[in-house]
Design goal:
alpha+beta; FAD/NAD(P)-binding domain; 10-stranded mixed beta sheet; 6-stranded mixed beta sheet; 14 helices; 21 strands; globular
């Protein structure tokens, strides 16, 4: 094979869409260990589907020591998400998304805070962001009546003396990454790629000629016992939590020293039409002290397979599994001589995180309801059900002075010869998949950049340095026509 993609999620689907366009004669195989694609992190009920654009997430706009707000990361993530939207728009308008644009729904993004100090911070954040063209439509209010018009569930039955504030970005989106992944993979298959489900890559070794020899297990109940052998010139490991162990087995020096810290999660969900009808937004709050960024509480409108629901959470937890449907031995099997020191260093320096996770694991139904009522005071337990979200594996990496550090973003690991790459980490992951895969193409195929550039610019106009002002209008029209 020219290319083997490990994992049937949004990352592999994005890379397949790009490669089948840029090199239509290449042979591409996609291997997914589950019975269908998008069953782990890309499943819509396993992620927030926010379409992370830094419009509402406070962890992307930290406060500096002098009180000013750093928006550098927010701008970068917003630009990366727009690249994703450009590619999706190109595929949709060229009849390359069999499922249409139903995966994308216009859903305002809001930030909601309580307390005088948080209100002051949110105001300063808004004043800084709105001066940048990408955030020019961001609105702010500390008036409960205005906030009630934006999202009535946030203010109903709330103590009127409590100081509150909110920002609102009308251009926000909700993304069903499961539907999008399946649609992109269907397109890749139509263009010649081969998707194999219940197929697990268990071993891989580089050959003398630089290609990779993969052992692939047939996981079907009546499958072949002997592993199938496949040779590939290039391998991408986009297997979510399963990527770390495969990168370790590859033996590439670039993977040494990496470890993983698994964090699980749960959400409360309601499909009560009376409640759902009162909330049309994704509302993010402020994380508790010691909580990881991925545990920032949020009350979200979700549109999945045409149905609308509300989700609140996540309630973080801890599990030794690296995948929701993985093994309890995943963490133990990931320990190597090269990552013991970084993992121990991270454990000792993040006791507040460990304490937070223990508290979340032992939380009762009453505790979870109390957290929900901080956002939605009128919430009643009869309307909500508890669902298990996806598993996230946060990156642990070596540090020259600290021994090891815990990263909450994503990490693209590529070999020096460009024949293998893998993606570690979690949020904002899916939302910035296109930017990440473009980075992969640049690192692993530098000799093809000049020949690929015209096609890439045609698919994503902002890569050419000139923003397509009509893009947002075109996407909105596609969304509304699908509805």
């Amino acid at each position: 094979m020219d290319v083997v993609l490990v994992g049937g999620g949004i990352m592999s689907a994005t890379l397949a869409a790009l490669l089948t366009t840029l090199e239509p004669t290449w042979t591409v195989e996609i291997h997914e260990r589950r019975g269908a694609p998008a069953q782990e992190s890309s499943n819509p009920w396993n992620n927030a589907g926010t379409g992370h654009a830094a419009l509402c997430e406070l962890n992307y706009t930290p406060e500096r020591a002098d009180g000013t707000i750093d928006i550098t990361k927010a701008v970068t993530i917003n630009e990366q998400f727009e690249l994703s939207r450009e590619l999706w728009h190109h595929l949709a308008t060229h009849d390359r998304l069999p499922g249409g644009t139903g995966f994308l729904s216009t859903t305002p993004h809001m930030t909601f805070v309580r307390g005088e100090s948080n209100v002051d911070y949110l105001r300063r954040r808004w004043e800084t962001l709105r001066r940048h063209p990408l955030f020019a439509d961001l609105e702010f209010s500390d008036d409960p009546a205005q906030i009630a018009r934006w999202a009535p569930l946030l203010t109903a039955d709330r103590d009127p003396s409590e100081a509150v504030a909110a920002t609102r970005a009308p251009s926000g989106t909700d993304v069903d990454f499961g539907a999008l992944t399946r649609s992109m993979l269907d397109d890749a298959v139509a263009r010649g790629a081969r998707l194999v489900t219940e197929s697990e890559v268990t071993r891989l070794r580089q050959q003398a000629d630089g290609s990779w020899r993969l052992a692939i297990k047939d996981r079907r109940w009546n499958g072949h016992r002997r592993a199938r052998k496949v040779n590939a010139r290039f391998v991408f490991i986009g297997a979510g939590g399963g990527a770390l162990q495969l990168l370790q087995r590859s033996g590439i020096p670039e993977a040494k020293g990496f470890g993983g810290f698994p964090i699980s999660g749960q959400f409360l969900r309601t499909t009560n039409p009376e409640i759902v009808a009162q909330h049309q937004a994704k509302v993010y709050g402020k994380a508790d002290i010691g909580a990881p960024p991925m545990s920032v509480p949020h009350l979200d409108t979700r549109v999945v397979d045409g149905g609308t629901a509300l989700m609140f959470g996540p309630y973080a937890g801890w599990s030794m599994k690296f995948l929701k449907h993985g093994s309890w031995l995943d963490l133990v099997r990931s320990i190597r001589p090269g990552n013991i020191v970084p993992m121990l260093a991270v454990g000792l320096k993040n006791l507040d995180l460990v304490k937070y996770l223990v508290g979340e694991v032992t939380a009762s139904d009453v505790d979870r309801l109390r957290t929900l009522r901080a956002f939605m005071p009128s919430a009643h337990p009869r309307d909500w059900e508890l669902i298990t979200a996806g598993q996230r594996v946060q990156v642990i990496k070596k540090h020259p002075t600290k021994g090891g550090v815990l990263e909450f973003g994503t990490e693209l690991v590529t070999s020096a010869d460009g024949t293998i790459a893998g993606l570690l980490g979690a949020s904002p992951g899916a939302s910035t998949a296109v930017a990440t895969m473009l980075d992969l193409l640049e690192r692993c195929f530098p000799d093809r950049q000049e020949s690929w550039r015209p096609q890439l610019h045609a698919m994503m106009p902002s890569l050419g340095g000139e923003w397509d002002d009509s893009f947002d209008q075109l996407v909105d029209e596609a969304v509304h026509s699908e509805r």
